[in-house]
Amino acid sequence: MPRPTDITILEANCQQQRVAYRTPMKFGGRVVTDAVIFDVVVRARTRDGREGVGHGSMTMGNVWAWPTDAVDSETTLDVMLELAEASVRAASDYNEFAHPLAFTHEMAKGEAELKNEAEQRRELAEPIPQLALMVATSPLHAAIHDAQGKICGLNSYNMLGEEHIDHDLSRYLGDDFRGEYLDRYTLRDPKPRMPLYHLVGALDPLTDGDIAERINDGLPETLGEWIAADGLSHLKIKLGGDDLDWDIDRVASVDRVAAAAQARRGCDSWRYSLDFNERCANVQYVLDFLAGVQERAPEALDRVHYIEQPTHRDLRANPENRMHAAAAIKPVVIDESLVDLESLMLCREMGYSGVALKACKGHGEALLMGAAAEKYGMFLCVQDLTCPGASFLHSATLSARFPAAEAIEGNARQYCPAGNLGWQDRFPTMFQVNDGTLGTAVLDGPGLGF
């Protein structure tokens, strides 16, 4: 049955800005020095005649979404921006009324056509990855969800039940979800506080001896300084995946520096996540790495919370990379591989024990994948794409609303703090780290919550 809170799009507009990084970030064998942030404003109307606007924002992250040697990075960025702009222009063509979940699901079909057209027009050396399309269109999708909540004066996470959605989850996730809605898998109020995962990049200095020349901008520069300043309890360690000795030594070194810093602040419990960014050749590398860390720094291994996507994102092309043995030691989650329900089910078959949600893959898609992960008893975490400002707050709402998510990942404050200007004054508890945690209770406003 039609719902009075269903919306249709009247108008959509966009803009972009480039933000320089404070310090370079290295991941997946590539170095990133800036970010392009894409912002969308949507004006919408509900079925019962109310009008209002919603906002969406996301960094384009082309180096992560489309890693390739066949197309240069400026071209991949340009193509993603072209897709983002084209999706915004096409948004008002969808003149039906629907809940944003159904709306964006239907829009995705047209966005796939935009991708095909761009491939043909550009004569690219390789197809545009689905992940790149999802990142490019995610600001628009966020703005649509935000608009409905803003118009209705309700938080978007509280518009996920049968009262507001005319189809149950079986429409998107199959018969296992018949009779179920997203309100079953999400919280009605955000968690009040959550730990922050701080990134330790491959180029980041651990001690003074690692710094050739200080930035001297008032922010911490070494790992020990960051731990002392923010009271950190969760560290995400970027690893190479192609040099076993370096990877083992990096974890041991991080643990040594962290242990000293935590001792000074009287902390005896903290955690690590490990991110190889798909660089491991096979699961045996992961097993050898874990064995090496166990031998070199057993306390560090005890502190490992989970391992992210150690091998290539194309699961079907690499069926030998089964994760059962590694996942028996620590949770192993897919990140780059997770683009739809089919990929989630395949990862379970291949031994992965968890999934990483990201706002940059589309708000509705993140909600659906989170529901599927919880339904099937998988480890769940929410990750960041070096999201500043509004995009960080959006990512944080996912962490705060999924019961199984234990922490918030957010590293823009380290690498591109300029993108947080203005937002940190409006939401100080989300940008000023207190004892390693952020105050997520403030993410309870209309729309996406901020």
Strand content: 15-25%
Overall morphology: globular
One letter per element, helices H and strands E, the order comes to: EEEHHHHHEHEHEHHEHEHEHEHEHHHE
Low-confidence stretches: none
Kindly state the number of beta strands: 12
Mean pLDDT: 96
Helix content: 25-40%
CATH topology of the largest domain: TIM Barrel
Looking at this structure, what is the CATH superfamily of the largest domain? Enolase-like C-terminal domain
Q: Give the biggest beta sheet.
A: 9 strands, mixed
* Euclidean distance between termini CA atoms: 30 Å
The SS-based structural class is: alpha/beta
Q: What is the CATH architecture descriptor of the largest domain?
A: Alpha-Beta Barrel
Query: What is the number of helical segments per DSSP (H or I, 4+ residues)?
Result: 16
State the domain count. Answer: 2
State Rg.
Answer: 21 Å
Query: What is the quaternary state of this protein?
Result: single chain
CATH class of the largest domain: Alpha Beta
